[in-house]
Amino acid sequence: MSISVQVIDSTNGCPVADLAVTLHTREHGTWHEVAGSRTDSAGKVGSLSDRVLPYGSYRLVFETGEYFAERAVDTLYAEVVVSLHYQGDPSRLHVPLLLSPFSYTTYRGNVPRTDAVGQV
């Protein structure tokens, strides 16, 4: 499984660039960091791991506090933690995050298939 993310600041409709995101997995009841990256100018991280990850429990940690602090904006969330248990297609998972200082929304996004002839 490959996990990608995109972060959009919903107060201005712009991508959140240079935001730290870490991926963790749970082993024997304890969370362990697997990978980390920063969002690009489009607010995206194309893949948070350079290896195939098995089905299981994962946690994405978005360091949102630093983003708002750099803009001198008060926020309720120093970080946004998205915990998920993934059992679907092991090749891809996309998690968008719509962010504002006092709320956030996330959902399972779509990643286009590129492995079939004639598909994008």
Automatic annotation (TrEMBL):
Q: Which Gene3D superfamilies match?
A: Transthyretin/hydroxyisourate hydrolase domain
Matching InterPro entries:
Hydroxyisourate_hydrolase, Transthyretin/HIU_hydrolase, Transthyretin/HIU_hydrolase_d, Transthyretin/HIU_hydrolase_sf
Q: Which UniProt keywords apply?
A: Hydrolase, Purine metabolism
* Primary enzyme class: hydrolase
Q: What is its EC number?
A: 3.5.2.17
Its quaternary organisation is: Homotetramer.
Q: Which family does it belong to?
A: Belongs to the transthyretin family. 5-hydroxyisourate hydrolase subfamily.
Q: What does this protein do?
A: Catalyzes the hydrolysis of 5-hydroxyisourate (HIU) to 2-oxo-4-hydroxy-4-carboxy-5-ureidoimidazoline (OHCU).
Q: Know the name of this protein?
A: 5-hydroxyisourate hydrolase
